[in-house]
Amino acid sequence: MKKILLGVTGGIAAYKAANFTSLLKKRGYEVKIIMTENATKIITPLTLETLSKNPVCVDMWHEKAHYEVEHISLAHWADVVVILPATYNIVGKIANGIADDMLSTVIAATNKPVFFALAMNVQMYENPILYENIEKLKKYHYHFIEAAEGMLACQDVGKGKLEKEEDVIWEIESYFLAQTLEGKLKNKKVLITGGPTEEAIDPIRYLSNRSSGKMAYALAKAAVAAGAKVSLISGPTHLEKPRRLQEFVSIRGAREMYQEVESRFETCDIFVSCSAVADYRPKEYSPIKIKKKEGDLRIDLERNPDILLEMGKRKSHQILVGFAAETNDIEENAQRKLEKKNLDYIVANDSKTMNQEVNTVSIIKKGGSKLEIQEKAKEELAYDIWKNIL
Ligand code: C5P
């Protein structure tokens, strides 16, 4: 998926098409743009031409003479068509078979996936006619990126704001990546733990680790994109909560995480333990702040439950996937854990990749087979991990 045909319609969010185009170019896409006549009142074709480095097409009849019919050649050229912003009007036109300008004609003429990134006034967004049109289009190769909530250009507060440009790109990329999973995660119940745990010393201090939760969140997002019902049990992170999860459960300590996992384990199909669970916690929690005194302070630690080990003992139909972040003898340690914890897979990585955007991993399967995946963005790696497990 490299060629994106972007359709810009005349909602006030049309100006965001500039940032969207620039983000796509930075990610290596070739972008061609069609604007509706109304969109040109909000943002000039020149802006989008400069950013896309391609001529922008508006009018069906004033284009330079071509040997090919323009709307058909654009429809063929694209790998995917994205309408951003998509107004009430364009959705209504396509749902009702109207093709009266360049953009609607190209949408009608393409058999490639078409994504509508919706943006409009909240009342229009809640109009049941829009809903009916969307439902009708969803039966075909049309996909919708729902609007977000917030303060709208008309000063109304509600649903109707264009989803963040980065998230629109994520939705589209994950659609294509999810295709590679061939529906194998569809409706599967997936339980994922992620992030660090915090083991309280007193109301102010705690013991923790450097886990960012990025790998777990990427796995959750990929599973959601592939149609799974995902429960994400997360320690404290600075990450944005993935969209469309079945549940998001926020915990602090390992014992809390244990309880949340235990109550869901029986009914899940796949359990991915990607959190960096603290192995020890302070033996005694001080309900009041520990004051500093002369000399050293000693804190005794006691063992936390090993969540994955316990679930490994209870495993019946579930697929169990563990992670092993190590500083040394990475694969030997991972192999040992795979056996000890009765896992189906273990993903071994160097602890240096904690908190990084990229990761290099080995996926080791019960019985010995091993796959190495060289440095990749965690968001992409998540799909490789899923592909392998399935
Ligand atoms: O034994 P180690 O902690 O290195 O094993 C790593 C795997 O075990 C990870 O999947 C991690 O989430 C899980 N784990 C756990 N409970 C612990 C410690 C680790 O579930 N107390």
From TrEMBL:
Pathway: Cofactor biosynthesis; coenzyme A biosynthesis; CoA from (R)-pantothenate: step 2/5; Cofactor biosynthesis; coenzyme A biosynthesis; CoA from (R)-pantothenate: step 3/5. SUPFAM superfamilies: CoaB-like, Homo-oligomeric flavin-containing Cys decarboxylases, HFCD. Residues 1-189 are annotated as: Phosphopantothenoylcysteine decarboxylase. The keyword Glycoprotein does not apply. Its cofactor is Mg(2+); FMN. Catalyzes two steps in the biosynthesis of coenzyme A. In the first step cysteine is conjugated to 4'-phosphopantothenate to form 4-phosphopantothenoylcysteine, in the latter compound is decarboxylated to form 4'-phosphopantotheine. This is Coenzyme A biosynthesis bifunctional protein CoaBC. The lineage of its organism: Bacteria, Fusobacteriati, Fusobacteriota, Fusobacteriia, Fusobacteriales.
